[in-house]
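Box 3.1 A note on notation
Throughout this textbook, protein chains are presented in two layers. The first layer is the amino acid sequence; the second is a C-alpha cell string describing backbone geometry. Keep the layers aligned when reading.
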Amino acid sequence: MNAGNSIALIGILLLLSACGGSHDAAPEASAPAAETQGAASSDGTDGAGNGGAVDASAAPAEDDTLVAADIESILGGNADDYRSAFLALQKAVAASDKDAVAQMVLYPLDGAIDGKQTIRDAGQFVREYDRIVTPAIADAVARQKFADLMANKNGLMFGNGQVWLTGICEDDACEKQSILVTTLQDTSDLDN
C-alpha cells in the first residue's frame, strides 16, 4: 500500500470513529426510509393497507439541503415555508383548482397571457386560467422537484422560468413573508 492510500485509509477510520462507527463493526440494522414513511405499493395505496394515496409531504425527502440553504441565505426566507408553497402550487395545478392557484398569485400579474396581458385580480385569473396556465406551464410545475429549484434574488424558478415563487414581505422588517407566484410565462421560445 502506498503512502497516499494509507493516509486516505487513516482518514476514513478517523471519520468512522468520530461518528461512533468502526471499520469492523457491522452497520446497525434499520428499516429503509420508504418503509418507515409508508411508501406507495404497486396498487397505488400508501403501503399501510388503508387504501389512502401517498402524501407527497410524507414521502422521503430529496436531498434539498442546497436549495434550502439558498432560500435562507439569498432570499432570507424559511425553506419550510417555500417548500409548503411549492407543494401547494403543485397540488392545485395538478387538480386544475383555478381558485386555489389564483389565491397563490401576486397581483397585478404582468404579461401572463401571450407575454402581453396583465391580470389585475383573482377573478380575472380564474376567468383566464386556461390561457395563463397553459399545458406547458402546468407540465413545468408538475415536473419540478424542490431540490432542483434555482434560487436567486428574484425567488425560486421552475423549469426554464415558466413560474417564479417569491417571498413578499408583510412587515417592514420582513420577518413574515407570503410566498406567492410572481411570474407565469410561456418560455417555449427558450427551449430551442
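The longest helix spans residues 3-18. Strands lie at 109-113, 117-119, 150-152, 155-158, 163-169, 177-184.
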